[in-house]
Predict the 3D structure of the following.
Amino acid sequence: MSVVPIEAYLGVSLIMFFAGVYGFLTRKSLIMILVSVELMINAADINFVSFNRYLYPGQMEGFFFTLFTIAIAACETAVAIAIIINIYRNWTSVEVGNLDEMKE
Amino acid sequence: MAQQIIFYILAAVIAIFSVMAVTSKQIIRSATYLLFVLLGTAGLYLLLGYHYLFAVQIAVYAGGIMVLFIFAILLTNRPGEQVKTELPIRRVVAAFTSLVGLAFCGHVIYWNINKAYTYFVPTEMKIQDIGHTLMGTNKYQYLLPFEFISVLLLACIVGALMIARKR
């Protein structure tokens, strides 16, 4: 029997997820928005892993889902940072308030 | 007992640093707090018994993605400059939305958790099982997603190079 209940793990991931939501809605820099998205993805990963360990102890689906999610988040961060660097080259700022016209 | 203490230390680290990462005024500090959050998450994976996931989280997230973030921050900002945030009314509305969402999800979890709870059975997951499941082609095995992930990684590398090259 474990000493840490499952709702403790879910509570930690809840705080992390909604900190990410607050950061996503509040920040003006594109990189800070990306940081908030990373927080949300990691919170969902904690949920997957804790449900796998507590409710389905013999199976591995949550573990593999988390593994693939980490790989996909790495890909998405790389492409997003390439886009941010390209935006910085053209407009010299990465604030979301300044990016309001499409290519002419 | 030791597990409880370590869990509460890691949970406090994750909660405090994730809130500080989204409310900090300087962007390099947010990146550093995010690094601590990712290391704390890796510690939680180790506490749950997933050694391979602990290693992957540290190698990919804390070692790879954080380096990308630091490079991107240093290429696009002057470090030390204050981060601009939205107007106060938007911050209040965003904080209110986050708190309402947190209260709602927290209520759903803590109301229903007794119906789904079982005890932690400390099963051991051997690395041979991970290898067989990742590379196998039977019903619950993951060779096809593994190959797709490698194609996705190639596509993302080529895409990032094409987007960010010097014209």
Q: What stands out?
A: Chain A has one domain: 7-91.
